[in-house]
Write a structure and sequence with these properties.
- This protein is mainly alpha-helical and 80 residues long.
- It is 28% helix and 5% strand.
- A two-stranded antiparallel ribbon has the order 1-2.
């Protein structure tokens, strides 16, 4: 069966529709950038908010490494 002989001939893909890796990567980067820009435009308060209910307010770490709620602890394993 020859697909080009029927009433609906299959058209070869136009060269302008082909996308190479560089164009695909650029469009992905642009999509992510505009997505972040839209999120930043909607967000009015840039400070961190403790949005998880049930753990309470964060207690400030005296060394300034990691603020945690009451009852939580951490141990520094290594520093860069």
């Amino acid at each position: 069966m020859n697909f080009n002989d029927g009433p609906v001939a299959l058209m070869p893909m136009a060269r302008s529709m082909l996308v190479n890796r560089r164009q695909f990567a650029a469009s992905c980067v642009a999509s992510v950038a505009f997505g972040g820009l839209a999120t930043a435009a909607v967000q009015t308060d840039l400070r961190y908010r403790n949005e998880v209910a049930g753990f309470g307010r964060l207690r400030r770490d005296p060394e300034g490494i990691l603020d945690l709620p009451d009852g939580f602890t951490f141990r520094v394993i290594s520093r860069a």
